[in-house]
Amino acid sequence: MSSVTPVHLGFLVFPGFPMAALTSAIEPLRAANEIAGKTAFSWTVIGEEDGPLNASANVVFQPDQILDDAEGLDYIFLLSSPQGGFENPRKGNGRLRHLVRHGSAIGAVSGGIFPLAASGLMDDRLTSTHWCYKAAFQTEFPELECSDDVLVIDRGRYTASGAAAMFDMMLKLIDEQLGSSVMTEVACWFQHPLVRAEGVQQSVPAFKTDGLAQDTPRPIARAITLFSENLENPLPIGDVAAEVGVSVRQLERGFRQVLNQSPLQYYRTLRMNAARQMVIYSRDSLTEIAQSVGYVSSSTLARHYREAFGVTPNEERRRANRFRVEDNRPLPSV
Q1: Is the pLDDT of residue 290 over 50?
Q2: Which Pfam family name is an example for this entry (predicted)?
Q3: Is the dihedral of CA 225, 229, 233, 239 positive or negative?
Q4: Residue 176 and residue 246 in one domain
Q5: Which of 4, 97, 117, 186 is least surrounded, with the fewest CB atoms within 10 Å of its CB?
Q6: Domain of 47: which CATH number?
């Protein structure tokens, strides 16, 4: 199953990249080499230009080489915060296209999908998008199709929603290269209890509760899905109740039992969380953000936003921008 030449992976890191995603990629590969007793995988950490950069925990990190010097990569993965991107987009994106033309598979983890999508190399491809970035990503790249799966592989494009999903992606590569026994031992080394493949959806918090959305009763879970899919044009609660096969009163009772709030309150929470993603991670105006989550005016959005988060959208955006400039801290990094 193994090849004579090691599979070589490049990890292109941008300022603010999530360190957990990098270690979740490299550590299983290191373990696979050790278990197999040979160098089946090699890797290089790449920067756009020479010099150190700050990772998500404000740790200074020195890449091994610059992107211009990267050659012979079997895979290249982009690691970034959602705000990450090339200082010189024309040169950087051209270099990525060069690598792909010469046989490199390309992918991204967590916020790295933003610069990868901006390169044009995800056009007509499905991408795994972390739930906390999804609204912002769809706003910036409305032509691209997002998936809630933890990882997606689509015709030479490898995307993972977050650090744990990146570990799963590496397990898949280990399985292909060294077989299932080595892959399983790697998973056990790191006490990785569940090996997730394509088609497994992300776990998404049911806001205001300690449970997860898949743990809720079927009518409530279905209502949550309808709410999530209809943020821009909110549905009447009566229509949602009819769609999930219960009365409005039953839906109200179910939401209060499971989520300790009404369906309307929960719906607003979803809309506020989507708005917050766009406030922090996009450059859209407040009017555009308001319209995208079903508000006619930005003033109504701002009032509800303040009730939900204790700050106005403008205050939140100024604070996020200050962190990026002063501390290089993406909010959040997963």
Answers
A1: yes
A2: DJ-1_PfpI
A3: negative
A4: no
A5: 4
A6: 3.40.50.880
- CATH assignment of the domain containing 273: 1.10.10.60
Residues 45 and 130 in one domain: yes
What's the DSSP call for residue 44?
E
Residue 179 shares a structural domain with residue 225? no
Residues 34 and 183 in one domain: yes
Residue 117 CA to residue 107 CA, distance in Å, equals 10
CB 96 within 8 A of CB 71: no
Residue type, 34: E
167-221 pLDDT, tens digit per residue, is 999 999 999 999 988 998 998 888 877 777 666 666 655 544 444 455 678 899 8
- Do 291 and 236 belong together in one domain? yes
Q: Are 40 and 2 in contact (CB under 8 A)?
A: yes
Parallel, antiparallel, or unpaired: how do β-strands 157-160 and 151-154 relate? antiparallel
Cβ neighbours of 60 (radius 10 Å) = 8
Do 109 and 233 lie in one domain? The reply is: no
Which residues neighbour 10 within 8 Å (Cβ) at sequence distance 6 or greater? 43, 44, 45, 46, 70, 73, 75, 76, 77, 104
- Residue 129 has φ and ψ, to the nearest 5°, of -130, 125
Query: Do 321 and 217 share a structural domain?
Result: yes
**CA dist., res. 113 & res. 128, Å (int):** 8
Which of 125, 155, 189 is the endpoint of a domain?
Answer: 189
Closest C-alpha to 129, from 106, 117, 146, 116:
146
Name the domain count of the chain: 2
Residues 166 and 253 in one domain: no
> CA 297 to CA 206: how far, in whole Å?
27
197 assigned to some structural domain? no
DSSP per residue, 85-116 = --SSHHHHHHHHHHHHHTT-EEEEEETTHHHH
Residue numbers of the domain that contains 218: 213-326
pTM of the entire predicted model: 0.69
Q: Tell the burial category of 166 from Cβ atoms under 10 Å away from its Cβ (0-12, 13-18, 19+).
A: buried
Which amino acid, 319?
Answer: R
